[in-house]
Amino acid sequence: MTTARPPLADLHAFEAAARHLSFTKAADELGVTQGAISQRIRKLEQLLALRLFERRTRSLVLTSAGQTLATAVADGLSRILQGLEEIGRPQPTRRAATLTVSVTPDFASKWLLPRLTRFQDTHPEIEVRVTAEHRFADFVSDGVDLGIRFGAGINPGLRTLLLMPDVVFPVCSPALLNECGPFASAADLVGRELLHDVTAEHDGSGCDWRHWFEHTGIAVGRLDGLRLSPGKLAIESAADGLGIALARATLIGDDLAEGRLVRPLHQTATTAFSYYLVHRMQPELDAHVVAFIAWLRSEAARWLVSEDQAEDAPVKQDNAAPPAARRPIAKRAS
Fold first, then answer.
1. pLDDT class for 141, splitting at 50, 70, 90?
2. Are 140 and 185 part of one and the same domain?
3. How many CA atoms lie within 13 A of 12 on its CB side?
4. How many whole angstroms separate alpha carbon 36 and alpha carbon 86?
């Protein structure tokens, strides 16, 4: 039987993770995100149909197969380096083009970067540089080719193309759901300890609790609870069992996949803002920009399909889960 040959990049990521016994440290060494390392390891395990790591609460441990592969890969990489030294250092690969993309830090780390390896695998001739900042690019002095903005799609003087919408839904810790749930409808969340994103309450994005309740047909008055800024503090507080937060689907995938957060209800509300591609007005885009835009739209379409499938999944409640270290707040006193 012939064993499929894994991509060298996946083996490189595995070797670093095996050496450090940490996806985070491997990501720091290779200059990528922890999500990118995790994705490559997952692809490698699926290709080999083997588990390479035992993922424990606070550590990674190599399986027997993982130890065997780690030894072989480390030896192989060492031989490659030795061979390169013997033939002389090769000239750097000449890239056809450099593409600079401006995005917000959260969208870069939670959505774009974990997927970027797929573009690099199919377009190795294009060097992608991601500028993650909240400031809008001016596309003149900063050298940015393409921006991804979450907003109303109003960008004077720039060409704007819809990439994808977003939705928001409630999230909480598994321990809180086990203690306070199950929740049958949006009405069950009225009076619960809600965690609010201060910015979302005032920016018109539709990522706030009042918008979500209105979308589900629930009339609410005053909404109490912790108000936090920046918004990711609400998500972190939800993971700590302090209450129920409202999360954007594009930014919460890893937390749900890793079990830090769960969805107590599957009811969603479409946000007033969407993701838009923004670039300079010009008669014709460069080929490398066109290629990246096409890839982004393909990834967005794939993500939307996966979200539709997730929406149909039942809410899971693990009654065997251990109690939380801090008892979650159940119902606010009236």
1. confident
2. no
3. 11
4. 32
CA–CA gap between residue 160 and residue 323 (Å, rounded): 48
Q: At which residue do the structure tokens 């977003």 appear?
A: 166
Q: How many domains does the chain have?
A: 3
Looking at the structure, do residues 302 and 267 belong to the same domain, yes or no?
no
Average pLDDT of the residues in 77-103: 76
The domain boundary, picked from 219, 246, 272, lies at: 272
Q: Cα dist. 204→109, 147, 232, 272, 274 in Å?
A: 24, 21, 18, 7, 12
| Residues spanned by the domain of 60 | 8-87
* Same-domain status, 31 and 79: yes
pLDDT in tens, 40-88: 999 988 988 889 999 887 788 899 998 898 898 888 888 887 777 777 7
Last residue of a domain, one of 64, 87, 110: 87
Whether the model clears a pTM of 0.70, i.e. scores above it, the answer is no
CATH number (domain holding residue 265)? 3.40.190.10
Structural contact between residues 125 and 97, judged by C-beta atoms closer than 8 angstroms:
yes
Q: What is the 3-state secondary structure (H, E, C) of 147-181?
A: EEEEECCCCCCEEEEEEEEEEEEEEECHHHHHHHC
Residue 135 shares a structural domain with residue 279: yes
